[in-house]
Specification:
This protein is of the alpha/beta class. The chain starts with a strand and ends in a 6-residue tail after the last helix.
Amino acid sequence: MAGIIPARQRFVETRVVLANNLGYPRIGKHRELKRATEGYWAGKVSAEELARTGAMIRQQNWEVQRAAGISLIPSNDFSLYDQVLDTITLVGAVPERYRWDGDTVDLDTYFAMARGAQRTGLDVTPLEMTKWFDTNYHYLVPEFVPGQKFRLASTKPFDEFEQARDLGIITKPVLLGPVSFLLLGKSRVAGFDPLDLLTALLPIYRQVIAALAQRGAEWIQLDEPCFVQDRGDHERRALAEAYADLARYRGSARLLVQTYFDHVGDSYAALADLPVQGIGLDFVRGRQNLEFIRAQGFPADKVLAAGVVDGRNVWVTDLEAALDLLNDLSAWVSADRLLVNPSCSLMHVPLDVRLEHDNLDPRLMEWLAFAEQKLGEVALLTRALAEGRSSVAEALRANAEVVQRRRTANWTRRPSVRERVAAIRPEDTRRGADYPRRREAQQHALNLPPFPTTTIGSFPQTPEVRRNRSRFQRGEISQEEYDRFIAEEIRRLIAFQEEIGLDVLVHGEFERSDMVEYFAERLDGFALTRHGWVQSYGSRYVRPPIIYGDVERPGPITVRWSRYAQSLTARPVKGMLTGPVTILNWSFVRDDQPRSETCKQIALALRDEVRDLEEAGLRVIQVDEPAFREGLPLHRSAWPEYLDWAVTCYRLATAVAAPTTQIHSHMCYSEFGDIIEAIAALDADVISMSNSRSDLELLDTFRRFRYTNEIGPGVYDIHSPRVPSVDEIRRNLQATCEVLDPSQVWVNPDCGLKTRRWEEVIPSLRNMVQAACEMRGALVPSGS
């Protein structure tokens, strides 16, 4: 690599070190963005009011970062919905079906791409949505076609830079890099490579970079996270081509190409050779990046943005260890060429742990650092590197004491749990009969028709449901009053499902605020926050539980309401559980033992719950794993180890069920084709998967892989307010039956119905049941 400083060559340090941040939560400290966007969708908030809310959140974020001592404060990291959608809008990559032909993308077109639209003259589905690398954040997938035209169609990066500049803050604009933007997209044209559009796309990025430089931007951050995945020479050549081009338009601004979430693997040399002024590497999840620098050196003409504070988890940083790492880096990178920053955007953690002062155990709270606290850690590390450890000696001492108290705490460990994990046997992960025999037993026990209909589990969490939960939590109504309310909601839902003709029913999960949080509240070893919100997608925020200790189930979790629901009907009702891998991946997980060990503890707790549900008379039990693929490492070399323990944990939780008990699972909004063998190895009797939003792409997987168990590819998208027609659903089912045997096929939505309104749910489900009935009627009787 040209310009690389030989390994182990030390520099005379000038000690000019800058505190840098890559991105910040955009939801508002009190979820102001959620209320504003949902108000806009409901017609209760104007576009101007929505814009004012966004401006207020941005200003607050910038001022918090400035007060914390951050020198390079990001802008354009804010979004009304999703940063990839913002990039689609920026470059005018709006698919034709949205009928946009203006100069700039208007708000209604923006949200139509996010949510779909169904109004006079326009009935369109939204863009596909999938997981952002290995996180629980979902991004909207760009759609590309050969010959695609791009044009600058948004002023958002400029507007936000100018807003901050008017406050006296020169920010570092953040853009999704052009190569990752194309790699994250898809084309429906077989054999077309979106990277072929790079030449057409680059002129828009030139305009944006030049315009930001003209406005006074000193640094511009271009995120290229796709290069922490396994990439080939073709993709690395595209990266080199892109930045050779863009470097000529930067003016006086410096370009920082940023990666995060893992090490950069074979792409290190390509990144180091780019004609840019800075490279950002993750040294938390990508510790191997340090080995690349040791082996290959680091360019003398570049700044290194060193991600040393974990942006994905909530534990206090071991500051001495982080300083040791930074000092190790200084053997190859002089201090004046170091930026100290979190490992990724802080949008993946809650805002401020101080909001939990009256909620969390003080012993646990001192171990935690949310976004604001991580800013402080970055600033402290920067000062220690610039001025020496003695300048922050008291803070380092206090931090070391916290780290030591956590390391030696005995109240987080349960010997009985560890003994039970150690005693797990291979036979504990095997069902009592193979699938063909189980299927025969379940057909006899359940007597379901062809194309059996069901839903994924949750039903609308109406304002009344949320209001009663809040009143109960505040002590305004008694346990007895709250239980009566929940019982009545379940009773009405069971009656509704029977009335529309669903075959396998659910109880609706009205008592649950969140599919992971509900279980975490009832398992030892978890802590729950009140204000620890993190964006999952759009206006959907979650509060990930914190796993701080060994996990154990003190008693039944779901049995009471499942038994009650089943008592109301002769039709089978599904017992609804969240699977061990999803509970793990959607929590902030302890980092003092392997994740696999924690997952086994959760699996054993759920195993006991499956047994109790069965004993309570539930004949169908669903153990959901929507985050199964999410936990997959970003480098394929690490896949086998993860898939081995993830499959083992699922089977450990479910194998206790009798052959007559039908085990379901559900997965959504991920790419499943490359792990379909592992999904089959779960050995669920029925699996439901999101399908409709990706234009039935899932079916291609089953053309290549012969899946023998039963499956419900989702027939309509629940993340859109659209009501699908009977014809639309029937066409989806007909396409499914061209790939799968009709005897395998279940009929269900893509996902749970929690976030939808009843006026959308009722007609959608009626149409779904009608489509299933028509499919049954079209079956040719055997022997005819």
